[in-house]
Design a protein that fits this description.
The protein contains 12 helices and 8 strands. The protein is globular and about 50 Å long. The longest helix has 23 residues, at 255-277. With 279 residues, the protein is of the alpha/beta class. The mean pLDDT is 92. Strand 5 (149-151) and strand 6 form a beta hairpin. The protein has helices at 12-24, 37-46, 50-60, 69-72, 83-92, 99-104, 131-139, 159-162, 196-205, 208-215, 217-233, 255-277, and strands at residues 2-5, 31-35, 108-115, 120-124, 149-151, 154-158, 179-182, 237-240.
Length: 279
């Protein structure tokens, strides 16, 4: 089985709950691929540390340590979305992630980023020495982190720009079993073109190298979701939509909502495990 994980900022808390529910029920994938905040989930799943992952989302993310509107409007300091703080000061410094198992365990780990020069997805299979840099690239949302990550000779930003749901990448074909896609937004969700205020924001705050990709993100997203819906209709993939009453948004900071989103994901994961075993 291959697991494909959408990100969506704090909505990934729900996805973390799904993954923990799967592992609780003994469902282990041969490969996992994550985009944007889904890359964090993928790494912890590959390391079999989903309980720690849930603690990260429910205890660290709420409040203003990870997401701060004040920092967003304070040039020169930490970014509004403090990717570096999460990766370097919390996960790495705290020894929360078993890097060796994440990159060399029984589940093959892949993460995505967006090459801003070619405006195309990049799929990486991280090693212990470059895992955190690939996670940084995958999480580098242009609006919020406002930085371009150079890695592997490429200038990269958030994997969700070009590859919000990387279900059909060639790298997954070497792994057997069904492809199971864990979404944090329904597959029917379509992104509209950026409004005037959003275009102005992008031009003011997003690094010049990433502006065109950011302005075209809705086109890339909608094309991916159209392909995914078609693949589900053909029976090629199993798509797990989130509940219609999903509590979480990309920037949710309310601790109660974040914890409840994790619990919803946990219930969905347990039910999904039973469905997969019955196949």
């Amino acid at each position: 089985m291959k697991l494909v994980l959408e990100g969506g900022g704090v909505r990934a808390t729900y996805g973390a709950g799904v993954l923990h529910g799967l592992l609780e029920e003994g469902v282990e994938a041969d490969a996992v691929i994550g985009s944007s905040s889904g890359s964090i989930n993928a790494a912890f799943y590959a390391a079999r540390q989903t309980r720690t992952l849930l603690e990260l989302w429910t205890e660290y993310v709420p409040g203003d340590r990870f997401i701060s509107w004040r920092r967003l409007f304070t040039p020169g300091g930490r970014p509004g979305l403090d990717v570096d703080g999460m990766l370097d000061e919390v996960i790495a410094a705290g020894g929360l992630l078993d890097v060796e198992r994440a990159t060399g365990g029984p589940t093959a780990l892949y993460v995505t980023a967006t090459d801003v020069d070619r405006r195309e997805q990049v799929v990486a299979r991280p090693t212990p020495t470059d895992l955190f840099e690939w996670l940084r690239a995958s999480l580098a949302i242009p609006v919020g982190y406002n930085r371009v990550v150079e890695i592997g000779g490429r200038r990269c930003v958030d994997g969700g720009v070009a590859a919000p749901v990387p279900f059909d990448v060639p790298e997954l074909r070497e792994h057997g079993g069904p492809t199971v896609v864990i979404l944090t937004r329904a597959v029917e969700t379509k992104k509209p073109p950026p409004a005037l205020w959003a275009r102005l924001w992008i031009r003011a705050f997003v690094p010049a190298a990433a502006r065109r990709a950011s302005l075209e993100q809705h086109e890339l997203h909608n094309a991916t979701m159209t392909r995914l819906a078609a693949a589900r209709g053909d029976g090629d993939v199993i798509v797990v939509d989130p509940p219609a009453d999903m509590l979480l948004s990309r920037l949710t900071r309310d601790p109660g909502k974040v914890r409840e989103g994790a619990e919803v994901g946990l219930r969905v994961g347990r039910e999904l495990a039973r469905t997969l075993r019955a196949r």
